[in-house]
Design brief:
Layout lengths: L10 E5 L9 H7 L4 H9 L4 E3 L2 E2 L11 E5 L16 E4 L3 E6 L16 H8 L6 E2 L8 E7 L2 H7 L4 E9 L6 E4 L2 E3 L7 E3 L7 E9 L3 E8 L6 H8 L22 E9 L6 E5 L4 H4 L4
Parallel strand pairs: 8-15
Antiparallel strand pairs: 1-4, 2-3, 2-4, 5-6, 6-8, 7-8, 9-14, 9-15, 10-13, 11-12, 13-14, 15-16
Length: 289
């Protein structure tokens, strides 16, 4: 396993997620797998750590959407792992879209230094910084777009339509819209819950079919909160199959039954609309056979 000193080689850019909102710069770096030793080196280097382009300290707190950058020595942005092969469904000069498998994190972090989508991207584009536009949980499969430059990242961020296929436990009656604020659960940096002081979140869904045990849904989130779909369906009493973290039944599938099946966006290069689809994974299909 490579050390975190070798994990990033030029510059690492982290867009702060709502999961990290309110944490310190140092806490974010630790969550992203940067060692204390390397953090100390960055603190001592002029502009070694910047937040939204300005020098920052490890004790400074961050907000969702902030860009935290660590200026490191020469080379490329992520440890390359050429043994990783992830299907590509679209590519142009500005963006590449992968069909990510489950059990693959998007970002390197503690415990996952070389087996992520970022490491795959690093092998394909050693000269580029890894800038994922839509971030999927480790065990959520499907379409994941990565911008190849800062311009396309800015153009695509917040301007990408996403749809998911989800298998919820039980019989969900009727389609609809779940609107309930989501925040960090007390005592956890990872778990989320519906709470009155959370961030506004809305999820639209339609029913495709049900078999008495599970309901297959097409889901279109309006917002992009951490674990939003998983939290919202647990909130209405229908957690996703396999989502043990939020109360889902693990009997028939061993990961949350969630798949990003559709992405659409306006290409920064051509100005044309790009629409992409990905088929539901076999483990989710088997829930309805």
């Amino acid at each position: 396993m490579p050390s975190s000193e070798n994990l990033f080689r030029k510059a690492a850019e982290f867009v702060v997620t709502d999961r990290e909102d309110g944490l310190t710069v140092g806490e974010v770096l630790r969550l992203r797998g940067v060692s204390r030793r390397l953090t100390v080196k960055l603190k001592r280097r002029e502009n070694g750590l910047t937040l939204n382009g300005a020098q920052t300290r490890t004790v400074d707190r961050v907000k969702e959407g902030d860009v935290l950058a660590a200026a490191l020595d020469g080379g490329v942005s992520l440890e390359a792992n050429p043994s990783l092969v992830v299907p590509v469904v679209y590519e142009d000069e500005d963006v590449i879209v992968f069909d990510k498998p489950d059990n693959m994190p998007v970002h390197p972090s503690a415990g996952h230094y070389g087996d992520t989508l970022g490491n795959c991207f690093g092998a394909m584009f050693p000269e580029l910084t890894f800038r994922p536009v839509n971030r999927l949980d480790k065990n959520t499969s499907g379409l994941c777009a990565v911008a190849k430059n800062a311009f396309s990242a800015a153009m695509l961020g917040g301007n990408m339509e996403k749809e998911y296929l989800a298998a919820a436990c039980g019989v969900v009656e009727g389609g609809g819209r779940i609107e309930a604020p989501i925040g960090r659960a007390d005592g956890s940096t990872i778990k989320r819950e519906v709470r009155s002081d959370g961030q506004q979140a809305a999820t639209n869904y339609t029913i495709i079919k049900e078999n008495g045990r599970y309901t297959l849904l097409r889901v279109a989130p309006e917002t992009g909160r951490t674990h939003q779909i998983r939290v919202h369906f647990a909130y209405i009493g229908h957690p996703l199959a396999g989502d043990e973290f939020y109360g889902g039944d693990m009997s028939d599938i061993k990961r949350q039954a969630l798949h990003c099946c559709r992405l659409s966006f306006i290409s920064p290069l051509s100005g044309k609309k790009v629409e992409l689809e990905s088929s539901m994974r076999e483990d989710m299909q088997q829930l309805f056979e």
